Structure formats: structure tokens, C-alpha cells
Amino acid sequence: MALSPTNDAALLQEVDEAVRKDRLDTIMQRYGRWIIGAVLAALLAFGGYLFWSHQQDVARGEQAEELIAAFEKLGTNQPRAATTELQKLAAEGDPAYRAVAEMQQANIKAQTGDLKAAAALMAKVAADTKLDPALRDLALIRQTAFEYDTLKPDVVIARMKPMVDAKDPASSWFPSAAELSASAHYQLGQYDKAGALYARIAKTPKVAKSLESRSVQMAGMLGVDAVADRATDSAAAEKNAAAPSAAAEQKAAPSAAGDQKGNSAPKAAAAAKVEETK
After folding, report:
1. At the N or C end, where does the chain have fewer CB atoms within 10 A?
2. CA–CA separation, 91 vs 163, rounded Å?
3. Is 89 within 8 Å of 73 (Cβ atoms)?
4. What angle do CA 180, 184, 187 make, to 5 degrees?
5. pTM value?
6. Regarding predicted confidence, which is higher, 3 or 108?
7. pLDDT in tens, 65-107
């Protein structure tokens, strides 16, 4: 007796499943150990990464505590004890903590009058390519400030140029870099460039008040009225801020006029009706 179409489909499905099972068995016989080994290796690698990440977090927490302890010792006038803590961080710490420790050591050296050693520590931080560029820029500014009296003005200008000329985005250290550069231009007799830089510093938003006042005075002495420029900029900013309000008032004016007219008409009609009644 011939098989029905339904039985043919079932038979084909059983044959197909048997073939797949046979192929799977063959693959497992040939490569099973390798597959299991690869899965276990991946699991071990993932577990090792999680453990390493946890250890890194723990180490960073310990380094943060050590850095805070060093600052507390500085605050209680214990520079030697603080230096010991900072040297340990500089030798063993995460790149960011190491940089902060070295920069603080440089500040301690500068306070004792050893500007050469202070500049060397700042130069080390500035040259560390593992650090964030903003941190390296700060170290370069501090290095230049420590070395300023021994540098030629052209060298100062060249060092600060990338931060002074940065526009998109502007350097977060522009005011400090520009002041060093403006001072160097002044030494070279380039009073127009120095005055322009001092004026730019004075117009920089959220600049420190002491630096702002100093820059306004220097710009004025060099023939640049930074106060007038600031006043012009403030007026322009106020005008731009007021523009949306004025537009809103103009938009609201027709409605108000319409309401006034609409309200006056019924009142006038009511008054006329009262007069007629009288």
C-alpha cells in the first residue's frame, strides 16, 4: 500500500533529523575537546578580567586614600611625611595619581626655592603621553612658570602657542597660558600683541578676578581699552538675551489690542442701551 503524503513528510523529517544528529556526532567526535576547551578558556578569561577590574578598583581606592593622607599632612605642616607618601604614589600609582603626586612634589620643591627640581618634575608630567592632554598642559604651564626667568621669551611663546591659539574647543588653561605669552611679548617689545592678549584674558568668561583685574590694567597700559570692550560685549549679550522677550511682547501685542477692542465694543453698546432706556 502506498504511503500517504503526510507519511512522506514525516519520513523526510525523520531522515533529516537523523542526518543532522549524525553530523553533530561527527563534529563532537572530531572537535569536541577543542570546543569545550575554547568555552572553558573564554570563561576563565572573562573571570580573570572581572577579578583584574575589581583589583584595579581596590588599588585606585587605596591610592586615593594615600593622596588624601598626603594632602592632610601638608595641611598640618608635615612636608617630609607628605613627601614620603607622594613619592610612594609616584612610584607605584595609577598614571593619573602618579601625575598628581609628582606635581604636588614639584610644588613642595618650589616652596623651598628649588625651582630647577620643581620644573624637572613638571616636565616629566608634561611629557607623559598616558595622561589626559589637559593635565599635561597644566604641567607645561607650571614648568614654564618655574623656568620663566631662565627662558628666552621666544621659547615661552612657542610653548604656550597651542593653548593660546586653540579655538574649538578652547583650552581650559587659556588665561594662564596667555598671561605667560603676553608677558613674553612685552619683553620682546611687541606691545600690540601683548595688549591684545591681555584684552582677550580680561574678556574670558569666569576668569579669576585677580587675573582679570591684572589683565585689564596691563591692556590699558598698552593702549587697549579692555573695559570698553567688556562693556560692548556685555551690551551685545544683553541685547541678544532681550531679543526673544521683545519678539514675545510684539507677538502678544495684537492679541492684547484685539482683546481691548473686543471688550470695549460690548461696553459701548451697553452704555448706549442704558442711555436709550433713560
Report:
1. N
2. 30
3. no
4. 140
5. 0.60
6. 108
7. 665 666 667 676 777 777 777 777 777 767 778 888 888 888 8
- Among 184, 188, 159, 164, CA closest to 174: 164
Environment class of 78 (CB within 10 Å of its CB; exposed 0-12, middle 13-18, buried 19+) = middle
Give the three cell numbers for residue 123: 616636565
Give alpha helix (H) positions in the chain.
Answer: 5-75, 79-92, 95-111, 115-126, 133-147, 153-165, 174-187, 191-203, 209-221, 226-277
CA-to-CA distance for 250 and 253, rounded, in angstroms?
5
d(CA 140, CA 123): 6
Grid cell at residue 250: 510684539
CB 181 within 8 A of CB 160: yes
Q: Report d(CA 161, CA 181) in Å as an integer.
A: 8
Name every residue whose Cβ is closer than 8 Å to that of residue 104 and which is 6 or more positions away in sequence.
70, 71, 74, 82, 86
Give the Cβ contact number of residue 91 at 10 Å: 9
DSSP secondary structure letter of residue 112:
T
What is the Cα–Cα distance from 74 to 108, expressed in whole angstroms? 9
